[in-house]
Amino acid sequence: MTEGSDTTNRLLDAVLPHVPFDGWSETALRAGMADAGLGMTDLRAAFPRGPVDAAILFHYRGDGALKDALSQADIGAMRIRDRVAHAVRKRIEIAADREVVRRGVTLFSLPHLAPEGARLTWNTADTIWTALGDPSDDINWYTKRAILSGVYSSTVLYWLGDSSPGDEATWAFLDRRIDDVMQFEKVKAAANRNPLFKAAFAGPLWLAGKVRAPAGAGSDNLPGRWSPPAQSDAAPADTAPPDYGPPGDTPYGDAATDASAPDRGT
Asked: Which of 96, 143, 166, 251 has CA 20 to 30 A from 17's CA?
């Protein structure tokens, strides 16, 4: 994920108070521009696609704050399902303003922006798994993020309509969704131990074992990531994959894979 320049972030901060009333719109951008004492040149340079780029930066900024928060949190003693629940809850708490998020959901529900919205949700799931030290480099890299994307997005939608004290109903909903995933993992593990299942699905399981995570998974340079225009004096980005640490008892994956499969490709 990327963060904008100081001017871009100052402009976004000025825009946010107007979003609950005007949505992610040109009206909100111009009002924020006036509040920040900036001009149209600054506005177009910061957000070439207008409100869409502003909403994207707001989301990526939240993911960046989540990454920082998880790096400082003492979650080593937690079970992996509790770490995931903690991360999803923290991401929602970082967003804080329901109306700003609601307007973003509305924006990215438009048919031509739905792929962008899906990419933002995937980025959040990727941020969580990477911060939690996910060691996956096979098909589980994709399944973990796909399943967590569903858990996260459904929890956000529930949160938008939650009026319970301290959002207690939302956190209970989140726990139930993770419990559902854990039940699915138990069924899948039992199926993988079944010799009849392995025989019947030998072909698909073999093919799944050949799938590898993207080269450089966990870096900020994956295809499809949004980034501001490069500056002439900017240092080259570090594309080395992070150290995921020792593998843990991670859910959302553990599909049968071919242990003899070759190293991931590009």
From this structure: 166
CA distances from 230 to 143, 233, 236 (A): 32, 9, 10
pLDDT in tens, 186-236: 777 777 777 777 777 677 767 777 677 887 665 554 444 455 555 544 444
In this structure, are residues 69 and 90 in contact, taking their beta carbons and an 8 Å threshold? yes
pLDDT tens figures, 239-261: 444 444 444 444 545 443 443 44
Instruction: Tell me the average pLDDT across 105-130.
Output: 96
Residue 264 CB neighbours (<10 A): 16
pLDDT of residue 135: 87
Answer yes or no: are the C-beta atoms of 149 and 127 closer than 8 Å.
Answer: no
Q: For every residue of the chain, which 3-state class applies, written as one string? A: CCCCCHHHHHHHHHHHHHHHHHCCCHHHHHHHHHHHCCCHHHHHHHCCCCHHHHHHHHHHHHHHHHHHHHHHCCCCCCCHHHHHHHHHHHHHHHHCCHHHHHHHHHHCCCHHHHHHHHHHHHHHHHHHHHHCCCCCCCHHHHHHHHHHHHHHHHHHHHHHCCCCHHHHHHHHHHHHHHHHHHHHHHHHHHHHHCHHHHHHCHHHHHHHCCCCCCCCCCCCCCCCCCCCCCCCCCCCCCCCCCCCCCCCCCCCCCCCCCCCCCCCCC
Q: How far is it, in rounded angstroms, from Cα 159 to Cα 150?
A: 14
Mean per-residue pLDDT, 30-55: 95
Domains identified in the chain and CATH numbers: 6-208 (1.10.357.10)
